[in-house]
Amino acid sequence: MKRTILLLAVALVCALSPARGQSVAPFRDGDRAVFLGNSITDGGHFHSYIWLYYMTRFPEMNLRVVNAGIGGDTAENMYNRLDTDVFNHKPTVLTMTFGMNDTGYAEYNRDGAAEFGERKYGETCDNYTKVEERLKSLPAGVRIVQMGTSPYDETSGIENKALRGKNAVMQRVVEFQRQSAERNGWEFLDLNAPMVEINRREQTKDPMFAIAGSDRIHPGNDGHMVMAYLYLKAQGFAGKEVADVEIDAARASVTKAVNANVTNVRRAGRDISFDYLAASLPYPLDTLSRSRGTGPQSDIVNLVPFVDEMNREMLTVKGLRGNYELSIDGERIGVWSGAEFAAGINLAVETWTPQYRQAQSVMHLNEYRWEIERTFRELAWIEYNFFRPRGMLGAFDRNSVAEIDKHLEDGWIRMHKNRYATYLNDAVREARAREMEMLIEQIYEINKPVTRSISLHKVD
Predict the structure, then answer these.
(1) Same domain as 274, residue 196
(2) Who's near 224: CB < 8 A, 6+ residues apart?
């Protein structure tokens, strides 16, 4: 029954049409979703947070999400690595974002900034057009999602001096990208405009607010969760409940059970108990800040209505008088009044429920997976920025090490040397890749919802 509920939910979501506000189709069972981008993708969490949503909301779905970002990349750099670092992952869905590095930096605060911006815009469009032609050659059935970049923050009052006019050029690139998607029948999502609007709104309350972090470029975990929210919203998930259950206490009966099974409802005096099997887990929000930026993933609750729109595990019990203690699997969760139960309790925000702790295990394993994947992206940086121009891509031999040693005056090469040395041997790379796959297998073993025993005990 649990799998039946899940498949019905997936079918409903997949049936949503663009006319209902969807601009990016939901992922399907068996999809390989590759995210191509620069450092915001490379070192960012948004794609991992998107996958975490699917891990918890559709636990039976076989989905793989791949980080194909490299720090500092432009559309031209991406073009140069399409075959060996993007298409080789055999994507069924390819999401591309670019524009931050393409449009330049310091020149915006120098003489001739307007001419510079115009030149960089033209170069960016030319480079992207080359990528566009390659994307058009992909096999039929591969979905392309053009995603407008997160913004460069020109308005925060942080000390880092803003590059005036840069984001306006980036927005022109986003529009060029949108036109390309329309021309080719691809999907499109703009992150720039809604994130700029969040910046403006929050900066009226705190002028130092910066969704793009202290460098005005790289969002923190909260910003990446906003990006994930915007992507998931474009996929049509707003208003989709984790579960929605309603109990009539007087009759000891189930009046509603959305995405869940409720059985064995019992009444003993003034107490109520029942068995509860949801088809999904609540979405866990990390309270640790794990990268550059303004805050942890959980700070999203202050920025966008993610909880109200996408993370509601509702328990409503009608007909209670007085206060009741809610327990799940014998774990005391809290005490609410009969009026509060009648209005509905969102269990997804109660971090000590057994199902939330189960989801947290999925979250942490996914974070470990992300950390391993990041090491491979660091390796990709030196492979494509240093070795590829020298005709030494994939060498991993004594000559490649000697070549690095000749260029240690370059701080970027020096910074990546240890990672390259660690991954020099095939056995190490293979072991780390297997470790990542083992984590994914473990996630899909522990992410299946289980039947929970829920009880409401009258307290005075």
Answers:
(1) no
(2) 44, 45, 46, 49, 291, 293, 297
Residue 42 and residue 37: Cα distance in Å, rounded?
A: 7
Percent of the chain whose pLDDT exceeds 90:
92
Q: Do residues 120 and 174 share a domain?
A: yes
Domain count, the chain: 2
Residues 363/289, Cβ–Cβ less than 8 Å: no
Q: Is residue 153 part of a domain?
A: yes
Q: Name residues whose C-beta falls within 8 Å of residue 138's C-beta, 6 or more positions apart in sequence.
A: 87, 94, 144
Average pLDDT of every residue of the chain:
94
> Average pLDDT for residues 189-197, to the nearest whole number?
97
Q: Do 263 and 409 reside in the same domain of the chain?
A: yes
Closest CA to 309 of 224, 240, 230: 240
What span, in angstroms and rounded, lies between the C-alpha atoms of 262 and 310? 21
Q: 124-134 as b/e, with b when 16 or more CB fall inside 10 Å? A: bbebbeebbee
Q: Are residue 155 and residue 220 in the same domain, yes or no?
A: yes
What percentage of the chain's residues is helix, strand, coil (to nearest 5)?
45, 20, 35
151: domain CATH number is 3.40.50.1110
Per-residue pLDDT tens digits for 324-346: 999 999 999 999 999 999 999 99
322, with CB counted inside 10 A (0-12, 13-18, 19+), is exposed
Q: Residue 185 region, left (φ>0) first, then alpha (ψ -120 to 50), else beta?
A: left
Q: Is residue 262 part of a domain?
A: yes
Sequence-distant (≥ 6) Cβ neighbours of residue 375 within 8 angstroms: 419, 423, 432
The contacts of residue 225 (CB under 8 Å, 6+ apart) are: 45, 46, 49, 285, 297, 299, 300, 306
> What pLDDT is recorded for position 291?
67
Query: 250, 238 in Cβ contact below 8 A?
Result: no
**H helices within 258-322, ranges in order?**
306-310
Give tens-digit pLDDT for 23-38. Answer: 999 999 999 999 999 9
Q: Is 347 part of any domain? A: yes
pLDDT band at 289; cut points 50, 70, 90:
confident
10 lies in a domain?
Answer: no
Q: Are residues 100 and 142 in the same domain?
A: yes
In this predicted structure, what is the pLDDT of residue 460? 79
The two structure tokens encoding residue 110:
């120098």
pLDDT tens sequence across 152-161: 999 999 999 9
